[in-house]
User: Fold these one by one.
Assistant:
Number 1:
Amino acid sequence: MKLVQKVMIGVGVVVVGIQLIRPSQENPPVTGDIGAPAEVATLLKRSCYDCHSNETKWPWYSQVAPVSWLVSKDVNDGRKHLNFSEWQGYEEGRKLKKFKEVAEEVDEGEMPMAIYLPLHPEAKLTDAEKKLLVDWAKRNGAPAP
Ligand code: HEC
């Protein structure tokens, strides 16, 4: 066997082998959705819910290692920081803080994460959409007048 063939077989074995390491990709039950106004909810679902809710869509490539490891990590981290599906269980102070963070992250263009956009162009927010989200989050993040 030629060296090239041996290397190819080696690579094949590794590619198949790493598929055995499967991170959990589950959608736990939605226990208390944030229930945002319709036009805001549409944007959150389109641009944020894959990482910040229990309604993640797991496309086929998210099941293939090593992409699966990266995707699972972002979803786990994302949910830990902010989960719109478990929002009603947050304490009032935490809600206020999260609203402020949403306003900041969206305003600064930090969210949705840049790495997510090439495969999810529909998640990109226009300036008008950003403003809608930021205004909503600011309104809710400010103490009642
Ligand atoms: C591809 C996954 C992904 C998408 C899509 C995404 N986020 Fe995130 N988000 C993360 C991860 C991972 C973190 C935690 C690590 C970090 O801050 O970078 C995070 C952090 C945050 C934080 C900070 C929370 C904290 O506790 O510091 C806010 C606020 C946030 N995201 C809002 C949003 C909003 C709003 C959207 C939609 C417009 C969005 N994210 C879309 C993955 C994502």
Number 2:
Amino acid sequence: MKKVLLVLTLACFSLVALDSFEPSKTCKTCHPIIYKEHFSSAHKNATIFKDPIHKAIWEKHPAKKKEKYKCAKCHTPTDTKLLNALANNETALPQKSSKAQQEAISCVYCHSIKDVEYHAKANTNILTDANKTMFSARKGEINTHDKEYTIESSLFGLLTKKTGSPFHKIDFSNENFYNGKICTGCHSHKQNSHNFDICNMDLKENTNTEDENCITCHMPMVQGSFTTAKDSKTHRYHGFTGAMHKPQMLAKYVKIYLNKSDDGFVVRIKNTANHQLLLHPLRIGELRVRIQRDGKTIKLPSVKFMRIIGKDSKPAMPWVADSVLKNTHIQANENRLINFNEHLQDNDRVTVELGHYVVNPKIAKKLGLEDYKEYTKFTLLKKSNFLIR
Ligand code: HEC
Ligand code: HEC
Ligand code: HEC
Ligand code: HEC
Ligand code: HEC
């Protein structure tokens, strides 16, 4: 049997040109399922033109008066024109007509992140300058650098086997795609002009392992092939599970236990994530407990989890704040015990719900977001039922 090996040369235009990125729509033909998920994700909608919460904060931000949309670094990193204007200290405001602004965090942007550089203010993503090459991860392939498109044909061309992509090369050798480090360029921490951390994931070393990290938890394997060219059965979910999008898919990383105590009972919440359960300062967590007894429902006072930032002991906007006034969020790997003074009886049914508000309802009004019910309603992360015996 004669084997003919054909290596197709890739068209020689760059995906990461100096001033523009290949639009995500280009990937749609061959990666339709991933494209659809990404389309409704927080990443695709991170611009002020799609995310009303981001817009509301931007409208109040002092950088707006100065006409410097500094948020672009993480929210619309594909808008290179705006980023260049910022670097040259020119007026840099997001333009609705800009295609790059609408692309926000695009497919090619993420798949081009070579490394993440640490800075106290906020980290920086280092992009590859390799031509049309996508970083990705695949078990057993870490030594494959530039996988090219090849067609192997056998039996005088009756059988063909294609590997690689006809559109781009694939680089499987970037370990940051295996351990989740590629997410930490934007997500790790952010300081304001008072050198105060508005948010900080406070990641401890070695807590992002190859077996469990940002990618395995937030991009779980779901049904459907990753490309039309193959029947891979599953792919990594590109809708990104989080506080806004499908939080229930993260429920398994939080455990809820209930034990009787001398003066009532204790609810124990174990956070198995390597970061504080909620990260953005606008979020507020809530634990709701109710008891069903003799056909009646007893609702116990709910418990809130929040991080309040401020100045001079008063809550303040992120750009004013210089200290943490209070932080009751459940920390990485913490076991939080919450005591209730209600004595339980046999056959009581106790329902424990852990959830959150995307925008703290008290702040929503100040931001003009009170009509966005999906942000100000209680969103469930996990619910557990206990029958008392
Ligand atoms: C260093 C990167 C970075 C910069 C710079 C940045 N952000 Fe963000 N922002 C993020 C990340 C990451 C998230 C998602 C955090 C989360 O959900 O916990 C986020 C989320 C948000 C949210 C919540 C969005 C939602 O839908 O709930 C708001 C509001 C926001 N950012 C406003 C801004 C504004 C305004 C600026 C510019 C003045 C800015 N950010 C600059 C990284 C950044
Ligand atoms: C003409 C079809 C085609 C287009 C267009 C295309 N791809 Fe691909 N891509 C493929 C094929 C086929 C594979 C699988 C190659 C293999 O497994 O040997 C692939 C694989 C990948 C992988 C690696 C998958 C893995 O196994 O980990 C990434 C990442 C990727 N593509 C991203 C993109 C992005 C981003 C775009 C848009 C800029 C894009 N692709 C456009 C056909 C395409
Ligand atoms: C063990 C699983 C696990 C790992 C590892 C993990 N997370 Fe999470 N993450 C969660 C859970 C659980 C939540 C809580 C969602 C909720 O409360 O609705 C969450 C929430 C989030 C949120 C939303 C927070 C908010 O306030 O909006 C972001 C953003 C996030 N994680 C990013 C990351 C990044 C980046 C990494 C890697 C550095 C990471 N996560 C690692 C499980 C994980
Ligand atoms: C926020 C960053 C980010 C964005 C945006 C993003 N990806 Fe990915 N993508 C990743 C990471 C991380 C992986 C996981 C690598 C691994 O562990 O398999 C991945 C995996 C993939 C894979 C192969 C693995 C699989 O089974 O799914 C393909 C194909 C892919 N992405 C294509 C795309 C396309 C097409 C888009 C846009 C529609 C896109 N990606 C947008 C980060 C991103
Ligand atoms: C270029 C910067 C950037 C990179 C890289 C990035 N993110 Fe994000 N991410 C953001 C921003 C900005 C938001 C908030 C967008 C908004 O809501 O306006 C966000 C939102 C999220 C959310 C919140 C979704 C929700 O429903 O609450 C999760 C989870 C998340 N990212 C996880 C990841 C993971 C995991 C990776 C790595 C594979 C990653 N991100 C890479 C900037 C980034």
